[in-house]
Automatic annotation (TrEMBL):
Residues 1-14 have a biased composition (Basic residues). GO terms for cellular component: cytosol. Residues 5-76 form the TACO1/YebC-like N-terminal domain. NCBIfam families: PRK00110.1, PRK12378.1, YebC/PmpR family DNA-binding transcriptional regulator. SUPFAM superfamilies: YebC-like. Belongs to the TACO1 family. This is Probable transcriptional regulatory protein RLDS_13625. GO terms for biological process: regulation of DNA-templated transcription. Residues 1-24 are annotated as: Disordered. It is found in: Cytoplasm. Pfam families: TACO1_YebC_N, Transcrip_reg. Keywords: Cytoplasm, DNA-binding, Transcription, Transcription regulation.
Amino acid sequence: MAGHSKFKNIMHRKGAQDKKRSSMFSKLSREITVAAKMGMPDPDMNPRLRLAVNAAKAQSMPKDNIQRAIDKASGGDTDNYEEVRYEGYGPGGVAIIVEALTDNRNRTATNVRTAFSKNGGNLGASGAVSHGFERLGLITYPASAGDADAVFEAALEAGADDVSSNEDEHEIWTAMDALHEVAKALEAKLGEADSAKLAWRPTTTVEVDESNAGTLMKLVDTLEDDDDVQTVWGNYEVSDDVMEKLG
């Protein structure tokens, strides 16, 4: 277990928090409804639903909204959402994985393909880039949860595999099937996490230069703004200097 991972989920990069609140709530609601529909409507009996509810709470989503999303699953009038994954390449040869929940595969595929083609990338076939990523559990805490050593110790005792800490947050990585148990154990030690979800961690990263970074960020923003897209993952590293120049 080592704290060497420099990977930053693009969901946490500077500026991503400025996303429209209503769009974010819509995506969180969709995940809650799908999770409740796939298992029990009780978060204590349904690990995926518990993670979805915790993610919603971390974004200050009102309790009424959360309950409505759960109730919608048992209402029988819900859209049939399915999970779809797209893989492709962005500017500078960056590998990108897009996860979506959609009730219309054709619409979503068209939107994702257009986003790639208009922003210096191209959509690949299934499996085109995922071989360069590991499927893991990711739990994030704010830096205020404790110093790096304290969080490392808590994560180790909870059964996590890897911890990476920086000035903004702590990223705690787990085996995919251990995510729920580790998250629960950490909650008792560190309080509620900012997020706990399945993630794609790249085995190697690509340093993106200034000439490609702007187009890459535009591609990521376009994908994230799509209502059907839940998460976007990439294997890129953009230096702080380049990010500052991009504003």
